[in-house]
Amino acid sequence: MDLFAGCGGITLGIAQAAHSLGHGLDIALAVDFAEEATSAYRRNFPEARAVVTAPVESHFDGDVGAQLTLTEHRTARDVGKIHVLVGGPPCQGHSNLNNHTRRVDSKNALYLRMIRAAEVLNPEVVLIENVPAVLRDRHDGRGVVERARDSLTALDYQVADQVVPLERLGVAQTRRRHILLATRKDVVSPETIFDTLENASSHHDLRWAIGDLVGIVSDDPRDRAPQPRADNIARMQWLLDNDEYDLPNEQRPVCHQGTHSYKSMYGRLRWDRPAQTITSGFGSIGQGRFMHPDLPRALTAHEAARIQGFPDYFDFSSCTTRSALATMIGNAVPPQLGTAVLSALFHAGAFGSMESVQPTSALA
Predict the structure, then answer these.
(1) Do 308 and 275 form a contact (C-beta atoms < 8 A)?
(2) pLDDT digits (tens, 9 = 90+) for 330-352
């Protein structure tokens, strides 16, 4: 089950891991409140039993620790046995890009919907992904991660959490994510899985991710180059002409001159390094180090999706506008995270002997 599913980045990674081990993936339920996200999910995972456009509370509406509601009884009946529950609750209230008052955002409470879903469904494994700043967030006076840990422990799970650099898992960007992993006590310990992730060393640079896309000619909207303003074209040309990667203050907009901590803004990417964290602003050099290494433009959606770890066959065509496409890609979870965690669980014998089923359609 994938809650706060987005377009299905975690699901894709899990499907890839299962497929590599001779298994398919039975997706019992995926839920997201955004129609474009669930449309993309359906296109890529058409065999999913249920993909629902709704708040997660429409399936898990009870308080943590309370008796199950009628809605939750119905959800448990319809879904049946779950091996793995995954989710990436909205992180806008956690992000360092927002001011400190946003850390009391009501979205933070959505993190605990994952715990409620675990209470209702009793899965063998719970995986919750978020930004590292979630460790500083509080809900009802307590740290939201601390409360999640305590609640899962009370449900007889083994629980561990860690900030994981996804670059280590083969994602061509310096993205870091907080991962909370809980497993049943007859399953491998989460610390074992984190040890495996810590020892991973599948590093890739930007050239590996998008080097073959230079000069591509395509009618695909993903390959449409962003159209910068004239002043930003001049800034990018200055970087290319001077073989520089950081724009000096005198070349920046007045509001970005002087003492600042925005060095990456208006910066140029390097072929031999991973990209910075991809966000929905990847099409503008004013929102981060998103300038192409060789060309006076920001990244295309195709390039951003590659840097996020999505294969070319993944279908984003449900996004009908440039803005929607940028949001879908920027908010996605790199599939390599799901692949790494599920592969480690399988290799540690977490699920025992399982019946093989047909490969997931998204891998075709």
Answers:
(1) no
(2) 999 999 999 999 999 999 988 86
pLDDT of residue 101: 38
Give the single-character DSSP code of 96: T
Q: How far apart are CA 135 and CA 59, in angstroms?
A: 26
Token couple for 344: 């480690």
Q: Which two tokens stand for residue 327?
A: 């949001």
Q: Is 319 one of the catalytic residues?
A: no
Among candidates 178, 102, 112, 100, which has minimal Cα distance to 143?
A: 112
Determine the pLDDT at residue 93.
46
CA atoms of 28 and 182, how far apart (whole Å): 20
Residues 145 and 189 in one domain: yes
pLDDT at 94: 39
Which of 58-72, 100-114, 343-357 has the largest mean confidence?
58-72
Measured CA to CA, the distance from residue 249 to residue 269 in angstroms comes to 18
Residues in the chain: 364
**Separation between Cα atoms, residue 10 and residue 16, nearest integer Å:** 10
Residue with tokens 């670059």: 167
Domain residues for the domain of 288 are 206-328
Pairing between β-strand 30-32 and β-strand 51-53 as defined by DSSP bridges: parallel
| Alpha-carbon span 234 to 245, nearest angstrom | 14
Contact by Cβ (8 Å): 317, 305: no
Phi, psi of 84 (to 5 degrees): -130, 125
pLDDT of residue 358 exceeding 90, the answer is: no
Clarify whether residues 109 and 200 are in a common domain. yes
Total domains, the chain: 2
